[in-house]
Automatic annotation (TrEMBL):
Organism domain of life: Bacteria
Protein species of origin: Gemmata obscuriglobus
Protein name: Uncharacterized protein
Length: 81
């Protein structure tokens, strides 16, 4: 039994990255996902970066890549949660 589980997936980066695709473990294909930039220190949502659907095997392909700077973070929030 899990005591606590976040209803979203957090991605943090030590280097600058161009993100066109990411994986969400355990999320079914077809589920819509909202991707938000967050404050890396507080986890507070800053702005919506993208929306997409989960594909086969839990992969999310973004229509336009997002740029993430060193030390930045984003969350992916499945819309069924």
């Amino acid at each position: 039994m899990t005591l606590f589980e976040d209803p979203f997936f957090t991605f943090r980066f030590a280097d600058d990255r161009r993100i066109a695709r990411f994986h969400l473990e355990g999320v079914e294909a077809g589920i819509r996902v909202a991707v938000y930039q967050i404050d890396p220190g507080t986890g507070e949502r800053r702005r919506l970066l993208a929306e997409a659907a989960v594909g086969d095997g839990g992969w999310v392909d973004l229509s336009e890549p997002i740029m993430v700077g060193a030390g930045d973070a984003f969350i992916a929030v499945p819309q069924n949660l």
